[in-house]
Amino acid sequence: MRSSSLLLLSFLMGVRGVQGGSDFRVCAFNLQHFGDSKSKKTDVMETLTKIITRCDVCLLQEVRDSKGKALPELLIQLNSIDSVHKYDAVASERLGRSESYQEQYVFVYRTDTVTVSGQYQYPDIRPGDVDAFSREPFVVRFKAPRTTIKEFVLIPQHTTPTNTTKELDALYDVLQDVRKMWKTENVILLGDFNADCGYLAKKNRKNVRLITEKSLVWLIEDKTDTTVRSSTSCAYDRIVVHGETFARAIVPLSAKPFNFQSEYELTEDQALEVSDHYPVEVLLKVDRSREFNGATSLALTGTNQKTSQLKFFSWFVLSHLVLQVLAR
């Protein structure tokens, strides 16, 4: 009986040590024409909120919210469906070469695990290559104390299919600009790169510095399918990590598309109502020792304080019961 109780106490201590130790997930999702019309579709919004609430930070692309109503509605629904985390967003201005077609880059993030520490709209005025992008990157720097990397930069890009090779190569210039400006090596480039199936010819890859530079690791492989349609198999959506230090902070083999059609048991037509792309994601390693210290600390505020105190109290009661058994 005593040995069984000791095992139970060890188990409780183990649970206590990893409490709140869920993975830290970074995602990128092309929402395919997300605006006022799509935000009014109940089934679509339900699926979108399920997908986005899986992520600590989620890059949204093809946000065409000209009326300024769709994104606020999305945030309302995210915060109503998830009682554990709170969500906010930082968005670019509307970007595009024509008034008739413009998009925004939007980063939705959990306010309890991430803070925005900087943002930068790339000016796209590089001498000799002015206006290289149809939608120039909106770069955001995040602090994430739970992760081993602590702080990182995300460079988003939704390339124009007819200009994929040039835009991907120009992303290398953006990377160098950001490294110099913020003096950081911890950078991920991500988004719908259109980096497959005719848009990025194999013969042109040798001319793309984002591919040839050895300090960059493409985490989503060429053979991966990031499209919803069963008639296509293309690795359009990518995640590229810069630098050895950041690469070591990635959970091995965690980069992949999230097949929401299969996960939520949707038909292909139902899935296509949401998007014709799957989101791609990667996990960052979490600082478990910090989470243990944070979980045992009562120096918290607001809702987090109440939640942590309740968890601590429950653990304390269970541990106390075990100790009573041991004392018999």
UniProtKB/TrEMBL annotation:
Keyword set, alphabetical order: Disulfide bond, Endonuclease, Endoplasmic reticulum, Glycoprotein, Hydrolase, Nuclease, Signal
Signal peptide boundaries: 1-20
GO cellular component, one term: nucleus
Compartments, as annotated in UniProt: Endoplasmic reticulum
InterPro entries: Deoxyribonuclease-1_AS (IPR018057), DNase_I (IPR016202), Endo/exonu/phosph_ase_sf (IPR036691), Endo/exonuclease/phosphatase (IPR005135)
GO biological process: DNA catabolic process
Disulfide bridge partners, by residue number: C197-C234
Main subcellular localisation: endoplasmic reticulum
Pfam families hit by this protein: Exo_endo_phos
CDD domains named in the record: DNase1
GO molecular function, one term: DNA binding
Keyword Signal: yes
Keyword check for Ubl conjugation: no
Residue ranges annotated for the Endonuclease/exonuclease/phosphatase domain, each copy included: 28-277
Residues annotated as the enzyme's active site: E103, H158
Similarity comment: family membership: Belongs to the DNase I family.
Protein name: Deoxyribonuclease-1-like 1
